[in-house]
Amino acid sequence: MAKDESAEVREEVQLHDFKNIFSLERKVAVVTGGSRGLGLHTASGFLQSGCSLVFITSRKAGACESAVKALNALPNKSSGAKAISVPADISKVEGVVYLVEEVKKHTDHVDILFANAGATWGASFDKHPDSAFGKVMDLNVKSVFNCVQKFAPLLSKNATVDEPSRVLTTASVAGLGIGSVGTENSTPAYSASKAAVIHLTRNLAIELGPRHILCNSIAPGFFPTKMTNELMRLSGGRKALEEANPNGRLGLPEDIAALAVFLCGRGSGHINGETVAIDGGKLWARAKL
């Protein structure tokens, strides 16, 4: 039987406005561990994507000032946008409280908190000191909770269902799989701390979702940074690591910055409690038979 097209119900094609789907225009961000490495790359991405204020914090005042100077010299940030240095030791809750109070001198709200500060410690299993385990867990896990807890009032200030605030945490593929083991540079504390951060972020997502604060974690593989350079050397060097990666390379600054910008923008408004691995597929290459 011939199809009666006149009897068909014709639906009008509707297109949605995706303008500024990756824009962070006028957003206020705080980046811990933002003076170098992944934090600095991400802070740069935030400013270049429209953020009006980006607060940079780390323990070393000189490093913060150098980072802010470089960020404020970016040629393609929005007019009037600026980075602000707030040195603080956030491994202690007093340092987190100080950071919040300093931020409040400049703004009454925060849209993005990137809890990125972290540390690692390499030693053989038999020689791994208790003090090192405590130091890594304090900065990589406890300080993340303290930062989110103390910044929650500022994060919820302007947050709505349609315009939620964001919390990003830095995990690691070492928290999804296994970190360095069986060597003189084993990292049990780091691996355990990053697994804890992933699960902490899931808890925060459910806790803070009703306050219109979305929480997700990023799990990087090897990115050439000051913190990873020694482990990369002990793991065979950059060239060997690149060749062993299905993607044929290691992480680049724009990789981490682009992912963070996406997770903090309009396009990720329904992503909450997730962990995104960014390692070129290396985690799964380790698991192949």
Automatic annotation (TrEMBL):
GO molecular function: oxidoreductase activity
Key word Oxidoreductase present: yes
Pfam family, one: adh_short_C2
Annotated SUPFAM superfamilies: NAD(P)-binding Rossmann-fold domains
Keywords, in A-Z order: NADP, Oxidoreductase
InterPro entries: NAD(P)-bd_dom_sf (IPR036291), SDR_fam (IPR002347), Sec_Metab_Biosynth_SDR (IPR052178)
Domain of life: Eukaryota
Family designation: Belongs to the short-chain dehydrogenases/reductases (SDR) family.
Name this protein carries in UniProt: NAD(P)-binding protein
Native source species: Viridothelium virens
